[in-house]
Amino acid sequence: MSHALALAARGLGRVWPNPAVGCVIVRNGRLVGRGRTADGGRPHAEPQALAMAGAAARGATAYVTLEPCAHHGKTPPCSEALIAAGVARVVVALTDPDARVSGRGIAQLRDAGIEVTTGVMEPEARALQAGFLMREAEGRPWLTLKLALTLDGRIATATGESRWITGGEARRAVHGMRARHDAVLVGGGTARADDPMLNVRGLGVSRQPLRLVASRRLDLPWPNRLSASTGEGPVWILHGDRDTPAEAGALWEGAGARLLPVAVRSGRLDPLAMLRGLGAEGVTRVFCEGGGSLAASLLEAGLVDELLVFSAGKILGAEGRPGVGALGVDQLALAPRFDLAETRVFGADVMHRWLRPSN
Fold this sequence. Notes:
By secondary structure, the chain is α/β, with parallel strands linked by helices. Helix content is 27%, strand content 25%. 42% of the residues are buried.
C-alpha cells in the first residue's frame, strides 16, 4: 500500500476533478502491475495497473488507495474491471465518500467472491486525499496559505519591495508545492504589485496549475503577464458578481481567461462563496500566496486548512508591510490557531507547516 500511495501522490495537482489514486497489483510476492490516475483524471489507476499485469492479474492481490469506483461515467466502473480480471483480493486504504460509490465498490467486489480488506494505511490515505475529501464533505477545496515573512512578520518594505524575502532554495520548494496543488491563488493587490506568473518554473512539469486572481472590481493593470500567457496555462479571474466593469471583463475573456463571479459581502469577495465556486468547478486543492488582505479574509472565515510560513533572517520594522491584514482580534482566545505539523530548513530559511485543529 505504501507503494500505491507514493504512486497516487504523483498525481496531486494533475488529476482534478478526480482524486489522485494509486493501484499496485501483486501476485506470489511479485509486483505485476501498477498505475495512478492519469493527468486530467482518466484513465483511472486500476485499469492501468490491470493492463500492465495482463493475465498475471488473475488470482492476484490489488492494493488501491481509494475504494474502486462503482458507477458508469465516462469510463466503466473500476470494480467491474477488477472482477473481470479475476483478482482474488483487493486491499483498500480508504472508502470513497462520493455518494455514487461509497461502499458500493466494495460491495460489488465482495458479491463477486473477491476478498476485500479495508482501512490499510487509512490515515496516510486520508492525508493524501485531503482536498478530495474536503470537496466532498464541504463543497470546497482544501486551502493552503503560504506566507514568506521576515522575522517580524513583514512581506515587503514600506515602499513595496518584496523580491526576495526568502532565498532560492525556499522559492524552489514553493514551486514544487505549487505543482502539487490544482490551483495557485493571489489577491488583486498582489497581482497589481508583483505582476506574477503563478506558474511552476524550473522543475520541468508538463501540466501547469490553474492560475487564479481574486479581484472584486477587476481593477488590474493591463496588459500583464497573466493575460499574455493564457495559452501556457489556464487563468481564472474571481470577481464581484455585481460591480465588475464590462470593459475589463471583455479584455480578460478576449485574452482567453475565464471569469467567475463571486458574491460580495461587507465590501469584499465572500471567501466561502469563492471557495465553494471553485469546488463546484471540480477544484480540490488551492495554494494561496497572499497578499495580506486575502490572507486575512480567509483566516477570519476559518477557511485556511494548512499554513506554510517561510521565515527569513531579516527584520524590516514596523514600517514594513505585514504579511496578514487586519483581523479585528482583540482577545487572544479569538485568534486563529493552528497545530505545528512540520519544521524544515531550506537554505537560510525555515519553514513551519501548521494544520487547522480538527476540533
